[in-house]
Amino acid sequence: MILGAIEAGGTKFVCATGDETGNVFDRVSIPTTTPAETMAAVDAYFKAHPVDAIGIGSFGPIGVNPDDPKYGYITTTPKPGWGDFDFLGHLKQHVDVPLYWTTDVNEAAYGEAEIGIAKDVPNSIYVTIGTGVGAGVISHNEIFNGRTHTELGHMRLNRLPGDDFENNCPYHDICLEGMAAGPAVGKRTGKAGKDVAEDDPVWATVADYIAQACVNLTVSFAPDTIILNGGVMKQKQLFPIIREKFAAYLNGYEEVPALDQYIVPAGLGDNSGVVGGLLLAKLALSEA
Ligand SMILES: Nc1ncnc2c1ncn2[C@@H]1O[C@H](COP(=O)(O)OP(=O)(O)OP(=O)(O)O)[C@@H](O)[C@H]1O
Ligand SMILES: [Zn+2]
């Protein structure tokens, strides 16, 4: 059995083949340009590398409910050409295998939940803090969706006293993504996140907003584990600060696992998405 994965991001698509244990046999990175150009490269990849099923995680927003007329579409993205694009419909015309369709963060969450850091627990949340912020919720070993997929990166937070940073999101006056994602760190400091000193005070601010988000996720979903990944979380010094602020904000309201096992880095590193795609392909095959 050879499984396929697509991690469809706003900057690049990764297509890969591998097996159900998460071994990646082959992968390619394709720049996200126009749907015609990028999808032609995706089609060519799976023609050259035949697979038995494909798991797809896409940037969005996307239609995830099968009874939604826009199921399988990338819906309202401002990315030129991709709004209202029937991704799944296109793929079905080019590959004749079972497909699993979800968001990029749900795909990564599934990888971590099946064979990554959350493999031993049924409820986990995967949060990526990168160019944007997204989160995927796994509830009882399944991807959680509501009326549509969640948009937890845009949760509202409390502005810290003295923080007059203009929220870096065109929709909200304050939200997690706008206050704490990589571009917000860039605007706050005038430097790329990776060049900001480890002890710069901006990290305490970023950690505070992420800690608030972890409290909100805890009281909303009661996960066993919260996984923090993405470019910003390469700053490992954030973890202890987030745990400390999380404990202060939760203030003993409910019991949670030991914090160094509750708020954790990803187990699969930069591979969560691709591995998740392979495992979603396996799921599609088992449901076909
Ligand atoms: N070592 C680092 N420390 C702090 N910030 C970093 C670091 N490396 C990358 N970043 C920031 O993370 C962001 C990129 O995030 P990431 O590497 O997760 O890629 P991405 O795929 O573009 O993100 P997204 O998942 O939102 O699409 C940039 O804003 C970058 O400045
Ligand atoms: Zn927002």
TrEMBL record:
It holds the Pfam family ROK. Keywords: ATP-binding, Carbohydrate metabolism, Kinase, Magnesium, Metal-binding, Nucleotide-binding, Transferase, Zinc. It is an enzyme of class 2 (transferase). It catalyses: D-fructose + ATP = D-fructose 6-phosphate + ADP + H(+). PROSITE patterns: ROK (PS01125). One of its GO terms (molecular function) is metal ion binding. Its cofactor is Mg(2+). The keyword Aminoacyl-tRNA synthetase does not apply. InterPro entries: ATPase_NBD (IPR043129), Carb_Metab_Reg_Kinase/Isom (IPR051804), ROK (IPR000600), ROK_cs (IPR049874). Transmembrane segments: none annotated. Its EC number is 2.7.1.4. PANTHER family: FRUCTOKINASE, TRANSCRIPTIONAL REPRESSOR MPRA. Belongs to the ROK (NagC/XylR) family. This is Fructokinase. It comes from Lactiplantibacillus mudanjiangensis.
